[in-house]
Amino acid sequence: MDDDRETKSMTTAKRRERQAVADLETGDNDIGLCGWMLVLFSILLTLVTLPISIWMCIKIVKEYERAIIFRLGRILRGGAKGPGLFFILPCTDTLINVDLRTITFDIPPQEVLTKDSVTVSVDGVVYYRVNNATLAVANITNADAATRLLAQTTLRNVLGTKNLAEILSDREEIAHNMQATLDEATDEWGIKVERVEIKDVKLPLQLQRAMAAEAEAAREARAKVIAAEGEMNASRALKEASMVIAESPSALQLRYLQTLNTIAAEKNSTIIFPLPIDMIQGFLNR
User: Span of the secretion signal (predicted)?
Assistant: First the structure.
């Protein structure tokens, strides 16, 4: 169900992107009569000043770049150009290169008030790239600066809806929500947010001490519970052993001799039996 929704949203975003690009890309016929006269004059000037003008007309676009050409202020039909070699008119055409490689930037530490009223400092890192060079040039002045500011605002907004425990344990979910929000917001700018990661969560010093004391108390409580369980198990074992010895008098004598042997092995001592044990047992029975 979620996959279907994501697929539909991606399809809708691509349709909006294509429509926006189609609206921006206008044909050469829209420049008007005066525009065509300027274009013809530029072509004539280029031919007259050959071969010097050829160096101004030839442009090379690298593999990871795309070129947006404005002719008399209008984007040429076809949108982004490149990579490769192409010609422009030096007087009427303006060229802007756009880098399509993935760009990484750090989100500065943001002071965020969580849902349970705890102030934390959180920073992160964002990976994005220009997905549509035409929209990145025509729809926004500075796509990189806008994406950085939007990432800071989105980080504060997303973390403001979480409590401290969720921030510490659900970093992956928070990063995924941020990526989805940023990607949707920057779609109109021709930018694709590929990945968002939460780097560090810094807590106030007093809160760190309180959490450390709480963890220490929890460990001590678990240790006491384990010791109590061990005492209980030992008591049950002693009870069962006493019942077995009570059923066999000879077992008691063997246990008595084994204890004496252990004492003699640990401490160098001499043990004297005044009477045989069987005679003592007879007096005890009387």
Answer: none
Task: Tell me if 59 sits within 8 A of 86, measured CB to CB.
Answer: yes
User: Is the backbone peptide bond immediately before 249 cis, with ω within 30 degrees of 0?
Assistant: no
pLDDT band of residue 179 (cuts 50, 70, 90) is very high
Cβ atoms of 197 and 124 closer than 8 Å: yes
How confident is the model over 145-155, as a mean pLDDT? 92
How is the chain split into domains, by residue range? Answer: 21-99, 103-203, 206-240, 248-286
pTM over the 0.70 mark = no
Class of domain 103-203: alpha beta
Closest CA to 80 of 68, 97, 70, 71: 68
